[in-house]
Design goal:
Order of helices and strands: HHHHHHHHHHHHHHHH
Distance between the termini: 24 Å
Shape: globular
Radius of gyration: 22 Å
Number of strands: 0
Length: about 400
C-alpha cells in the first residue's frame, strides 16, 4: 500500500467511513444532488420539447425547450448538465467509499479488483441498455454508464494518491486531450456531408476551433477504427450526435473534480470554510472553462466533452454541490429536497427505469384509465399529462424501495 493510501487508512479509522456527516447521518447534499440530477433525467418522459413545439410564440416554453434538450454543438443547457453531474457525483462519493473499505482493513489489491469489476459491470450495463429493441448487441460506448465505467478504474487508482497528485492528473488528462485535438488535422479530401454534417449546418467551426468540429476530430477517427472491430449490422461511419467513445478521458477529469469536492465534504472543516471552498473553486473552474471558449482556444462542447466543457460544467457542479451542502447539511433544511433524495438514494434503479419502464407504464396507464383521460386539456397537452402520471408511478416505485430499504448498488 503506498504512503497516500496508508495515510488515508489511518485517517479513516478516526473519521466516519460512509458518505455521512460527523453525527453519523447520511451526507444529505450528495443524495439531494443525485436526486435532482436523476429527476431531470426521468423528467424526459414529460416531453416538454414536444409541448413547446406546439407554441412557438410562447417565450417561456421556448426557454423550457432549450433547457430540456441538448444543444446542437457549442454551449450548455440545463439538460447538458445531467451527465457531467452524474459523473461528478461518482467522484464525490468515492472518498467516503474508499474510507469505508480502508476502515474495514480491506487490502489495496482487493479494492483495485473491486473497482475493476465495477467498471466492467457499468460498461456492460450501458451496452445492454443501448441494445434494447435491437437484433444484435449494439456495441456503443457513449452511454453515461459506459463512459463512467471506462474511466472508473482509473479514477479509483488516482483516488489512492494525494490531493495534489489528483490535481496534477486532472491537469495532465485535460491538457493532453486538448493537445491531441489541437495537433490533429482532418485527412485530405475530407467531406463533412459524408459524416452526417449538412452543408448548411450553422455550427461548423473555422480557424483554430475547427479542430473540434463534429465528426471531424481525432476521437471520431478513433471510433471509425475501434467500433468497427465489433460485430455490426453495417460498418460504423459516424455517430449522428457527434458523440465519441474517447470522451471518457475528459469525463475522467470531471470525475476527478468530483473526487476533490468529495474530499472537501469529508474533511472535518468548519461549514463556512467548506462553503467558501465550493464557491471559490466553482467560480474559478467555470470562469476558466468559459474563458477558453470565449478566446476560441477550446469551444465548450458537451457532445465531445471538450476540456473547456469539463472545466465549465465541473465548476457548475462544485457550485451546485456547495449550494446543497449549505441548505441540506449546514442549515439542515431538507424537507423540500426529500422527494429528490428518495430518487438519489437509488440512482442506478432510477437510471434503469428511465430506459426500460416509460413505455410499459404509459401503455398500462392508457389501457386502464383510457387515452381520453390524458386528453382533458387537448391534444397538445396529452404527452405532458401522460408523462406526469408516468413520472409519478416511477417515483412511487422508488419510494417503495426507499421505505423497504432496497438499494441497488454496484
Amino acid at each position: 500500500m503506498n504512503s497516500a493510501a496508508r495515510d488515508l487508512a489511518i485517517q479513516s479509522k478516526k473519521q466516519t467511513a460512509a458518505p455521512r456527516e460527523g453525527n453519523g447521518q447520511r451526507q444529505a447534499s450528495i443524495d439531494a444532488y443525485r436526486g435532482v440530477v436523476m429527476f431531470l433525467m426521468l423528467a424526459e418522459v414529460l416531453h416538454l420539447a414536444k409541448l413547446a413545439s406546439n407554441y412557438p410564440e410562447n417565450v417561456f416554453l421556448q426557454h423550457l425547450q432549450f433547457h430540456t434538450s441538448h444543444v446542437e454543438w457549442i454551449g450548455c443547457s440545463l439538460h447538458d448538465m445531467i451527465q457531467p453531474s452524474f459523473s461528478f457525483l461518482v467522484g464525490v462519493a468515492l472518498p467516503f467509499s474508499l474510507a469505508a473499505r480502508l476502515a474495514r482493513d480491506a487490502s489495496t489489491a482487493s479494492m483495485i479488483l473491486h473497482a475493476l469489476l465495477r467498471s466492467i459491470i457499468l460498461i456492460a450495463m450501458g451496452i445492454a441498455l443501448r441494445s434494447m429493441n435491437r437484433e444484435i448487441t449494439n456495441f456503443t460506448f457513449e452511454d453515461t454508464l459506459t463512459q463512467i465505467g471506462l474511466g472508473y478504474f482509473f479514477l479509483f487508482c488516482i483516488a489512492l494518491t494525494s490531493n495534489w497528485q489528483r490535481v496534477g492528473w486532472c491537469i495532465l488528462i485535460l491538457l493532453g486531450y486538448w493537445l491531441w485535438f489541437a495537433l490533429w488535422s482532418v485527412p485530405p479530401g475530407f467531406d463533412a456531408t459524408k459524416v452526417g454534417v449538412p452543408p448548411d449546418w450553422p455550427h461548423w467551426l473555422s480557424g483554430f476551433q475547427a479542430h473540434w468540429n463534429k465528426n471531424a476530430n481525432p476521437a471520431w477517427a478513433a471510433d471509425v477504427w475501434f467500433l468497427n472491430l465489433f460485430p455490426r449490422d453495417q460498418p460504423f461511419p459516424y455517430n449522428g450526435g457527434g458523440y465519441c467513445t474517447l470522451s471518457f478521458v475528459p469525463t475522467l477529469g470531471t470525475m476527478i473534480l468530483g473526487l476533490l469536492a468529495g474530499e472537501v465534504l469529508k474533511r472535518p472543516m468548519k461549514p463556512s470554510a467548506k462553503l467558501a471552498s465550493f464557491a471559490v473553486v466553482g467560480v474559478g473552474l467555470t470562469g476558466i472553462g468559459w474563458g477558453l471558449g470565449a478566446f476560441e482556444l477550446c469551444p465548450i462542447v458537451k457532445r465531445i466533452w471538450t476540456p473547456s466543457f469539463a472545466l465549465y460544467s465541473g465548476g457548475l457542479c462544485w457550485l451546485a454541490l456547495g449550494t446543497l451542502f449549505a441548505i441540506c447539511d449546514w442549515a439542515r433544511f431538507r424537507v423540500c429536497f426529500w422527494p429528490f433524495m428518495v430518487i438519489g438514494a437509488n440512482s442506478i434503479a432510477a437510471y434503469i427505469m428511465s430506459w426500460t419502464l416509460e413505455r410499459p407504464i404509459q401503455a398500462f396507464l392508457e389501457r386502464h384509465l383510457g387515452r381520453d383521460f390524458f386528453m382533458a386539456a387537448g391534444e397538445s397537452y396529452h404527452s405532458l399529462l401522460l408523462g406526469i402520471a408516468t413520472l409519478l408511478v416511477m417515483w412511487l416505485m422508488l419510494l417503495w424501495m426507499f421505505r423497504k430499504r432496497i438499494f441497488i448498488r454496484i
